[in-house]
Specification:
two-stranded antiparallel ribbon, 52% helix, 127 residues, single chain
């Protein structure tokens, strides 16, 4: 009698849902807006930087507003299908200076949310 073994499911894959390109872009934009807003609030706005723009209920200084629009533009123009996470991508569409800045923002904001118990944002970011 043959032994029937259950099919192997890679860890984490049973929780991932397939997103359309448009859904993925909206999700990425939502995470970018939240992460850049937190970074801006802590690093710039608390230290007296003027609010340059208020977008979707979040305040941004001029530098962070420019970074947000640069990142959203790069996200929308991604040539790959399906779009991978930018940190895992081999195509370097960010300028080196902007790439370092967005890495700094994402690192700070991820730690910020973990320390404050906002694991839901990290869930959205990674899955």
């Amino acid at each position: 009698m043959p032994v029937i073994r259950p099919q192997f499911v890679p860890p984490g894959s049973m929780f991932k849902k397939t997103l359309t390109t448009e859904q993925r872009l909206r999700k990425d934009a939502k995470v970018l807006r939240a992460f850049i807003a937190v970074y801006c609030r802590v690093h710039h706005l608390r230290h007296g930087a003027a609010v340059q723009c208020r977008e979707q209920g979040r305040d941004y200084c001029a530098e962070c507003h420019a970074l947000l629009h640069y990142a959203l533009q790069r996200n929308d123009r991604c040539p790959l299908e399906p779009k991978p996470a930018c940190k895992d991508c081999d195509v370097r569409c960010y300028k080196p200076q902007m790439r370092e800045k967005i890495r700094e923002v994402m690192k700070f904001s991820g730690i910020y949310y973990v320390k404050r118990g906002r694991l839901d944002w990290l869930w959205h970011y990674f899955f």
